[in-house]
Amino acid sequence: GPGLVVAVDGPGGSGKSTVAKAVARRLGLRYLDTGAMYRAVTQLVLEQRVDLEDPQAVAELAERAVITPGTDPDAPTIAVNQVRVDAEIRTRAVTNAVSAVSAVVAVRARLVAQQRQIIAEAAQTGRGIVVEGRDIGSVVAPDAPVKVFLTASTEVRALRRSRELGEKGVDDVARTLAELDRRDVLDSTRKVDPLAVPKDAVTLDSTGMSVDEVVDVVLRHCAAAG
Ligand code: C5P
Questions:
Q1: What is the dihedral of CA 218, 184, 80, 63, to 10 degrees?
Q2: What residues flank ligand 1, with Cβ below 6 Å?
Q3: N or C: which end of the chain has fewer CB within 10 A?
């Protein structure tokens, strides 16, 4: 039969990536990080010194760019015009600019179409796929049989993000928290496909949960879906 499609949405630092990759590994599914695709376009925008405040210019650049995500949960990769940018897309500069780029309608239209193609392929070949992002259950794959919305308190999300970035000081956590907050507001209030809880999603607050506990809950929903 067709492969399982699992949608995992949520804000930054909610544990989406860790959980999505673990679920994909456990079930032998592919893994698609849609945030990495928006980050890759952003990396190109910054590199080419295109004005972030000029949606037309950002859209034109995005239309010419070829974004290639690798879908192995053990080694996800991302390339822009055949050049790998796995590390570059995780910089603070990209993180703080990505919301402006992901709010551009033409950028979303292009990436969403590509994401749907990757999902359809995985589903057809019976491989199945876990897809993480902000609008997967609501827009990209509204028919996904499993939809999870992951949350956590802002403090816990900032701590996790700060740790990922290798930061140590209290000031760093405070700054990361402020940046996360700003990105949450931008992502949740943009006009096109804002971050929102899909109506038929399972909401999981991971604040007091271990990764294994969250993964187990998601796996149980996958088993129930077929
Ligand atoms: O998940 P991650 O933090 O890598 O996402 C980076 C940014 O990409 C988000 O802050 C958001 O602006 C954008 N994004 C999006 N839609 C998605 C995935 C990410 O708008 N499906």
A1: 110
A2: 12, 34-35, 38-39, 98-99, 102, 133-136, 183, 187
A3: N
